Every structure is written in C-alpha cells, then in structure tokens.
Amino acid sequence: MAEAAAVGAESLSSGQARAARAVLGQLVLPGEELLLPEHEDAEGPGGAGERPLRLSPAPRSRVRVVCGPGLRRCGERLLVTKCGRLRHKEPGGGGGGVYWVDSQQKRYVPVKGDHVIGIVTAKSGDTFKVDVGGSEPASLSYLAFEGATKRNRPNVQVGDLIYGQFVVANKDMEPEMVCIDSCGRANGMGVIGQDGLLFKVTLGLIRKLLAPDCEIIQEVGKLYPLEIVFGMNGRIWVKAKTIQQTLILANIFEACEHMTTEQRRQIFSRLAES
Amino acid sequence: MATEHKPKLSKNLLRMKFMQRGLDSETKKQLEEEEKKIISEEHWYLDLPELKEKESLIIEEQSFLLCEDLLYGRMSFRGFNPEVEKLMLQMNSKSRTQEIEDEIVEVDVSDEEMARR
C-alpha cells in the first residue's frame, strides 16, 4: 500500500494525467486526472501542446463511458475525487464500461436508488423524518408504503427502523425515501420487525458483504436460523433466536473487516463446533 | 410666410402616433431607423464566449449498484423468516435466470437444423 501511495504521489507531483487503463486496481488520489482510452492517443506522453497535425482525423471511437463513485466529469476530462483503488467493469453490450474508485469511508452520502436503513426521528404532517446517517435527515411520505392511502395510514412510530430506497438524492436538496418500488409493491421494504440489533460498519464492508460470492455470508448462513438487513449507509440489522446468537453475529460482522481469510475460517469452525 | 418657414417640430413630437399620418415617407423612414437603433442598443447581451454544450461521452453515476452486482440487502437463513427467503430468491435470481434462459435458447434446435427438416 505504501508503495502504491508513493506511485500516486509521484504522478501527482509530475502533474501528468495517467491512462485509466494503466492504473486499474492501483491507488488513485483526489485531484488526479485520468485519460480514457479514446483520449490516450490524442493527449499522450507528448502532451497537448505538440499535437501532430492530422489531415484526416481518425474517427474517434464514440463509446459512452460511465464514471461511478469517486470520479467526476469535468468537461472532457475525468477527475478523481476519492482516494482508493480504481476499478473497471467491462460493459455488457457495447459502450466503454464503468470506472469507479473503490474507497474506504464511513460517512454516507445519499445516492438515488440505494437501499438504506433509517431511523424515524419525527412525524411532521404528511411526512416522516428519517435519519439515514447523511448530512440531513431524509423525508418519507406516509403514502410511500405498500397499501397506504389517505385514510389508511401506515403504522409507523418514532424510533422505528425503516428499510427503504432513495428516489431523490441531490447534493442541494433534502433526500427523499420511499418504501415501495415503481410497481407499488413493498418488496421487503418498510418497517423492519421488532427486536434485533442495529450497528454500524464502514461502507466498504457493506459492499464486500453484499458481493454475490461473499464467503462470510455463506458461512454465517450455515450457523443457525437468522435474519440480516444490510443498508448501503453502513447499517446492519441482525436478529437470531436468542440475544446471545444475535450478539455473536454482530461481533462477527464487526470483526471480519480486518481479518484474513484464514482467521475467519478458524473462527467459523470454532463457532460451528460450539 | 407660413409656407416658407414651417415651424420645425421636435422629433419626439413627430414620433407620436397621431403625428404619423401627416408625415412624408422620407422622414418616416428616418424616424423608423432611429427607433430601431435605439431599441437594438438597449438590448442587453452577455459578454461571454458562446456556451456550446458538447455531447459528452462520459456519464456520471454516483451509485455502486451499477458498478458492482450487489445482492438484495435483506437476507434470512435456515427458515428464520420464510417471507424474506422467498424474496431473496426472487430478487437475487433476476440476473441468473436471464443467463439460464440464454443457455436454453442455445440448446434448442438451431436454425440450420430447422432448415434441413
């Protein structure tokens, strides 16, 4: 990691943009500029100043590139805004794929479409105020529940846990949540049941746990009957049959972020025995 | 005396609606031009280079959903909450069923074979 940081600092000090393809999986730092494949030949090592004159400009490959979290478009340029490793996903059908920065952070910033766990902090008229860990509480309309009408209000109390989705999340506006999908069905969203335990982990761990081939989840699922809810805002809610089992789960999730695969396997085998 | 020395009316007076009828065509034109000039001078314009939004090939998207194929956030194991388990199957199998369907299409009778029959 220290090595990678040194490389990053070096490229920053020289002020030269690196090609996005060349730094895949490597550390990038905020403020760095990345070159997309189609820009590489035009603004290569020679710099923008000495661009060779072309009589017939080569047709630029017009592929759309998506820049995900941690990257920002600035005109034609691609800038890094977060510190972390650059990742890339090949496109499914055409296009230039997706680039993003895999970063480690604890502060959640609401993003449209994210599923999060919120705590109802206030009821004000037609909306609930929900704390989601962002800079501002999100608003949740009482009509945004499955089967809710003006007459038939959902039974939501202050202090309840809500699993919902963002429909409005701008940097200048109050975020807005709903507990139904576009078809009006709950699909598991709404008030999360009684009891259970809520705790916070880093945002990176949530993504790690929700990855389709996550070993931790597969191992945990074999232990005993349990239920988990993951919010993209770093909150995890767990519930098992006894309080002891619930606490064990919470401890596993909190600890597994800084464990190696070997250590994890040891712990799971020990748990399975007991 | 009066025919020789017509009293000159001021421009502002000539520009008034009821005075326009008696004017000859030349003075009319002159007045119109002047008016146009004044109007065009009064228009405001921004002293900026032309803002032309080029079609950008980079799309910004701040969600991790698009980047990583994340699973649905609610999970239940070993029959703790049957409803959620059903939901898990439904939500997490969306991408997988599509792959399976594609395979099935390939396994089916190919076009060539159909032609032979």
TrEMBL record, chain A:
Subcellular compartments: Cytoplasm; Nucleus, Nucleolus
Main location (coarse class): cytoplasm
InterPro entries attached to this UniProt entry: Exosome_RNA_bind1/RRP40/RRP4 (IPR026699), KH_dom_type_1 (IPR004088), KH_dom_type_1_sf (IPR036612), NA-bd_OB-fold (IPR012340), RRP40_KH-I (IPR049469), RRP40_N (IPR048541), Rrp40_S1 (IPR037319)
Signal peptide: none
Domain K Homology: 196-243
Pfam families: KH_6, RRP40_N_mamm, RRP40_S1
Record keywords: Cytoplasm, Exosome, Nucleus, RNA-binding, rRNA processing
Transmembrane domains' residue ranges: none
Domain Exosome complex component RRP40 N-terminal: 26-104
Entry similarity comment: Belongs to the RRP40 family.
PANTHER family xref list: EXOSOME COMPLEX COMPONENT RRP40, PNAS-3 RELATED
Protein name, entry field: Ribosomal RNA-processing protein 40
UniProtKB/TrEMBL annotation, chain B:
Top-level division of the source organism's lineage: Eukaryota
Pfam families: MPP6
Official protein name in the record: M-phase phosphoprotein 6
